[in-house]
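A quick word before the example. In earlier lectures we treated sequence and structure as two separate objects. From today on, think of them as two lines of the same record. Here is Acyltransferase domain-containing protein written that way.
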Amino acid sequence: MSLGILCSGQGGQGPGMLDLLRREPAAQAVMDRATAIMGKDPRALVAGPEAEMQRNAVAQPLLCAVQAATWVALHPLLPPVRAVAGYSLGELSAYQVAGALDVDELIWLANGRAEAMDRADPAPGGLLAVRGLDRSRLEAVCRDCGADIAIENGADRFVVGGRRTVLALAERAVLALGAAVTPLPVTVASHTRLMAPAAAEFGPVLAASGLRAPPLPVLAGIDGTPVYTRERAVSSLTRQMTEAVAWAACLDGLNEMGCTVLLETGPGNALARMAAERHPDLPVRSVSDFRSLSAAAAWVERQLG
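And the structure line, produced from the sequence above:
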């Protein structure tokens, strides 16, 4: 019986994302450190306009700060972790959970990643969730419209990325084919060819950073295989900026590595819901489902027996 950790990506940020952390001194200490690095207090950002939290330059370091604060407070309450996987931006947080990144450097890298992505393409971009088409039909739509498949969540569940004008064309095309679509609250075309300048800028920053070989295996977002070396960690984190995230493969990889219980760090529970859909026999919850971090830890203990 082993625990796997899921680190959330962008989209779950909102006004209540710090509620579980208000009475956690260790988490508040992380918030103080994040304030010094970001130049803005995450607590003030969460209390401010929700639209500000959706801006890429704010969202990425903010989410990494919140996840780091959650993990620092939660980790002492949990049994040993078998493996970690992170969704999109969450892959960066996964290395902090695995012990390969210090909190300060995680937030600093998230800030640099967001800035590089914002500079990569001057035109407004975004992501569109598409459900109900298989990969071959969706790839044909993407070729016709100039979009890219950014994330594969399942056999007929994908996220498409591109410039806003291109996504409008893709949305009309997939709706005509009977698919369901959901625009995502992301302002850049993550995991697409448009991010090539960002990868070229951020890759050397990662290579020069204090990122270490992960003491726990982190599943590479691009293929769902475990990462054990620093060199592969740098490569995977760089490549995922321009290549599709194989999230379904990550979930399968956690299962194959013997993770019998999964816990998502939040905010939100999107990853927990996807994992429950793909592996219905696997107990999975998000920290956000609970009223306290101790309640989340107690649930894990019950599941592991």
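Notice the following. The longest helix spans residues 56-74. We will return to this example when we discuss secondary structure assignment.
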